[in-house]
UniProtKB/TrEMBL annotation:
UniProt keyword list: Cell membrane, Membrane, Protein transport, Transmembrane, Transmembrane helix, Transport
Similarity comment text for this entry: Belongs to the exbB/tolQ family.
GO biological process, one term: protein import
Pfam families assigned: MotA_ExbB
Topology of this chain in the membrane: Multi-pass membrane protein
Domain of life (superkingdom): Bacteria
Record-given protein name: MotA/TolQ/ExbB proton channel domain-containing protein
Compartment(s): Cell membrane; Membrane
Keyword Membrane part of the UniProt annotation: yes
Length: 249
């Protein structure tokens, strides 16, 4: 009963607020809905992609040559790791062509370094895409307390104006106005705290994806050195598969 009475009194204070206070509260509620929507969407998406990456990393543990690597990439063609592997295979193909054209020394030295640079660039592009809208959570965590403070200051000014009009500063006159003003601060903090926690958690999932991508990159470089530097067997490319993968973006 006490809790119900408290909620009713708080709701009545919100209804008694002026237009500015109500606008701030509505804006804060909208930020909260958007914040949770982004966070839940990203967490579900990252969970799926992390599982895909973990599966591919496990499969690559037994891969020792380019042919099996190509088979793994083709098997997971419609996933994030499959897309990354297909992009890396395109650069790998360029090294093989250089090797076949007689530029083996370049392929063994600068070519391997260039392959590493291209894969790092692919990782950066993927992470940039995955991090889209994640910074919104950090923005909400920073802005919502300031909006709450703005509502509080506005409410206090409104309360002091009421005091001057009534020519009275007793607790009965002051308390409702101050309570009304502090509601926006509470609302701002109730949004900022979860938003900051969600931002930290979602960012950790992005770092997991980044870590797994670098594992794939290292495995690609290892196989590239075996094929190019140690002059192991090469493999014919499935041109249709490569073109299909490059047309996905």
């Amino acid at each position: 009963m006490v809790q119900v009475a408290g909620m009713n009194s708080m709701w009545s204070l919100i209804l008694q607020g002026d237009a500015m206070t109500k606008c701030i509260l509505i804006f804060l509620v909208g930020m909260s809905v958007l914040c949770w929507s982004i966070a839940l969407y990203k967490l579900v998406l990252f969970s799926i992609k992390n599982k895909q990456l973990n599966q591919v990393v496990q499969e690559l543990q037994s891969v020792q040559d380019f042919k099996n690597l190509f088979a793994v990439a083709k098997k997971h063609a419609k996933t994030l790791p499959g897309y990354f592997l297909s992009q890396s295979l395109r650069h790998f193909k360029e090294l093989l062509l250089l090797k076949k054209s007689g530029k083996q020394e370049y392929a063994q030295g600068a070519g391997i370094d260039f392959l590493q640079m291209q894969m790092n660039q692919s990782i950066d592009e993927i992470l940039h895409q995955e991090e889209s809208h994640v910074s919104t959570l950090s923005l909400f965590a920073a802005v919502s307390p300031l909006l709450g403070l703005l509502g509080t200051v506005w409410g206090l000014v409104h309360s002091f104006l009421s005091i001057s009009q009534k020519q009275s500063a007793d607790i009965v006159t002051v308390a409702p106005g101050i309570a009304e003003a502090l509601i926006t601060t509470i609302a701002g903090l109730l949004i900022a705290i979860p938003a900051l926690m969600l931002y930290s958690f979602v960012s950790s999932k992005v770092r997991e994806i980044e870590f797994q991508l670098y594992i794939l990159s290292d495995k690609m470089i290892t196989i590239a050195r075996k094929v190019i530097v140690e002059d192991l067997i090469s493999v014919e490319f499935d041109e249709n598969f490569m073109h299909d993968q490059l047309d996905r973006e």
